[in-house]
């Protein structure tokens, strides 16, 4: 695993290479992993992500006019003056989208050059795209001395992703990348956007969160995401509540009786019980009982597998193998149909757990998963 300094040094070197001169500064924003609370965000519910040490670093400087961006991922340098939606496509849309959203919000965005380096795995469900947007946003805010309070920044990034990039994502990923603190998970109420920093210093307890990228191709995820969202919205309408967040867990059986559709009933059961699992996890963590959250993680997985039906064999196999190898709990994390699995384990069991999942994958003819030990890390900031 590369450290922050390596990524920062690479971003600075990329800047000098492509743009000449030195950057005015370096800004970083992390990827994230969601500890628990899946598909609860767009139901106005609760989530509990934490930021990763893996981050996107933007080396940036003010310039005279327009915006240019380069990334070590590609030789192409993106340049644009026009930020109307559709004008910039490809990875540059994540940069242009942030400029657009800032301007839509009435800010005078400074013309800038940005060079991007990153060690956030791309397309693994660890939100490299939001890390990129949040690094760009943080850089532009500082370069232009824009007055945008931290608590208002996630909405702006969401606007960029929804309105410019065209991805119908919720509010969790940007909130995590911007607002997390080291050694804590971020308890976020997706309705009020209130946050509470919940102590989650796994290392101090001799524990670790192992994240395994299943490397499963998740080609169907967009359509399925839309279908799940619609199903939840339809159910809320039938139940006469603004969102499924408003169905308490002790009102669940009554609510289910009012729904005719068997599939919809299962979707609702997932969301309602998942919200409660987030609250229960927060309760345990507040009293320092980290190990005891394990069964909640595993129950979350079962709910995603059986009720919300968003898992795939590769993530189910990984969860099962991690549990067999002694994990306290394990679940798929992220939107589903692939992506990563996380397991709460004793800190010295990372290699053994990875080996167990690799062996199970091998038996099924799947390529080995990619491991990462997820240390709860701080949100976006200026590095230099
Ligand atoms: P993820 O789960 O990683 O967010 P997405 O498909 O939402 O997956 O976003 C991945 C996209 O984000 C990439 O295809 C690319 O366009 C952009 N991206 C992420 N990191 C970088 C980077 N370091 N440089 C350029 N583009 C990046
Ligand atoms: Mg993304």
Written account of the structure:
It is a single chain. With 384 residues, the chain is α+β, with helices and mostly antiparallel strands. It is built from eleven helices and 13 strands. The strands form three sheets. A six-stranded mixed sheet has the order 5-4-6-3-1-13. It has a four-stranded antiparallel sheet with strand order 10-11-9-12. A three-stranded antiparallel sheet has the order 2-7-8, sandwiched between helices. Helix 2 crosses helix 3, helix 8 (262-286) packs antiparallel against helix 9 (294-306) and helix 10 crosses helix 11. The longest helix is centred in the last third of the chain and has 25 residues, at 262-286. The chain is globular. Magnesium ion is lined by residues 127, 129-130.
What is the secondary structure topology, with strand pairs?
Elements lengths: L3 H16 L5 E10 L11 E2 L1 E14 L4 E5 L2 E7 L11 H13 L7 E7 L9 H16 L9 H13 L6 H8 L4 E6 L5 E5 L7 E7 L7 H19 L12 H6 L4 H25 L7 H13 L6 H12 L4 E5 L6 E7 L3 H15 L5 E4 L7 E2 L2
Parallel strand pairs: 4-6
Antiparallel strand pairs: 1-3, 1-13, 2-7, 3-6, 4-5, 7-8, 9-11, 9-12, 10-11
Helix pairs in contact: 2-3, 2-4, 3-4, 3-5, 4-5, 6-8, 8-9, 10-11
This protein binds adenosine-5'-diphosphate (ADP) and magnesium ion.
The site of magnesium ion has 3 residues, from helix 3.
